[in-house]
Design a protein that fits this description.
The protein folds into 2 domains: about 250 residues, Rossmann fold, CATH 3.40.50; about 100 residues, Sandwich (Immunoglobulin-like), CATH 2.60.40. Helix 3 packs antiparallel against helix 4. It is α/β, with parallel strands linked by helices. Helix content is about 30%, strand content about 25%. Helix 7 links the parallel strand 9 and strand 10. The protein is built from 8 helices and 14 strands.
Length: about 375
């Protein structure tokens, strides 16, 4: 590709993001009332409407990867930028004695834009098989969405009736896509933009609903936009950074952990996303690759499942994260500037256990 075509493609990449971020600017620092709507239940000494209150959902797994219940507050240490931060509220949930209210909602997205017809057909079959397990009795309410070239199509409101949801899956029309790999880099840009906007729209909508959500995306995700033929200008980096900040903040506010499930076999390309897991601290470091599905899944406290040919088992593993988890809250320190990135780590004081939660947040003055 010539240099002229590279510049033109870079400009095309920037334009949709610019229009999008102008319509949906990065949220300003939360007011007391805004923070109260998404903060954790706190003891009287630490009112939940404190400015900068952040809530984290934490899944603790053993060596086999199975979520573990039964831990107490003193088993946890929270590090904010590698500095210990006081945990101001703590709740342990399981599927027996301490169930969350409202229950954890599962948002299941079938991606028909970024997958081939064969992959979509297989995913539909596996999702329907999952939904019909246990005579169609689902342990968590499930919302079903389908991503098409025309946008996001809601198939069913949250329901625990797996049979009814499976019938909806069977009825999904696998239409011919107008955006696809055959259109090359231009199509990749369009699919990237549509996918990111879809995720943003879901997160924005879910901020209005209480409770924790697991967003399971059926598909390997949108293009990572790491081709040498796709160049990003500095203006494009600024716009990408705005989107990264806003999406990270929206996922936090909505209490969404994202999950990627995909069919196929593992290859070198399956692990490229691991090169982009570090939080983006400045616009100079911002690239579209930081908005990959698998990157966002890890950063939001979810996980990457597969690729293999048992999507039903992958979805079951995702569901396990709704059965045993912990919710804690803390106050962010004073920010030195807007969009100040903070690394987060939760440590568990027991051998062989790993805590998985959001890996960072953007602090505001």
């Amino acid at each position: 590709m010539s240099n002229a075509k590279c510049v033109c493609l870079s400009f095309f990449l920037c334009l949709p993001v610019l229009a999008w971020t102008q319509q949906n600017p990065v949220a300003p620092a939360a007011t007391h009332s805004e923070t109260a709507s998404v903060s954790a239940l706190s003891p009287p000494s630490a009112p939940e409407n404190s400015k900068g209150r952040i809530k984290l959902d934490v899944v603790v797994t053993d060596r086999s990867g199975k979520p573990l219940s039964g831990l107490a507050l003193n088993d946890f240490t929270l590090l904010d930028n590698d500095q210990p931060s006081p945990i101001l509220s703590f709740h342990a949930f399981d599927d027996a004695t301490q169930k969350p209210h409202p229950p954890v909602e599962i948002i299941l997205v079938l991606d028909t834009v970024n997958e081939t017809h064969q992959q979509v057909a297989f995913a539909r079959q596996e999702i329907a098989r999952f939904l019909r397990q246990n005579d169609g009795r689902l342990p968590q309410p499930v919302s079903l969405f389908v991503l098409t070239d025309e946008g996001l199509d809601a198939q069913r409101l949250p329901s625990t009736d797996g049979n009814a949801l499976a019938t909806k899956v069977d009825q999904i029309d696998d239409k011919l896509r107008t955006i696809g790999s055959a259109t090359g880099s231009w199509g990749a840009v369009e699919r990237f933009q549509l996918s990111i906007k879809t995720l943003m729209d879901i997160a924005d909508s879910e901020t209005r609903k209480p409770g924790r959500k697991l967003l399971i995306w059926a598909g390997s995700g949108w293009p990572l936009m790491d081709s040498p033929r796709i160049q990003t200008s500095y203006q494009g980096q600024l716009q990408s950074f705005d989107v990264i900040v806003k999406l990270s903040t929206k996922l936090h506010e909505a209490r969404i952990s994202a999950y990627s499930i995909s069919a196929g076999s593992s290859g070198v390309g399956s692990f490229v996303y691991k090169n982009f897991l570090n939080g983006v601290k400045t616009a100079q470091k911002a690239l579209p690759t930081s908005l990959g599905l698998r990157v966002l899944a890890v950063q939001s406290g979810g996980s990457v499942q597969g690729p293999d040919n048992d999507l039903t088992a992958q979805i079951n593993r995702c569901f396990e994260d709704a059965r045993a988890f912990y919710t804690l809250s803390f106050d962010s320190p004073a920010a030195g500037h807007a969009n100040e990135y903070h690394d987060l780590k939760v440590l568990v004081d027991k051998p062989g256990l790993t805590a998985r939660t959001s890996t960072g947040y953007y602090n505001q003055p």
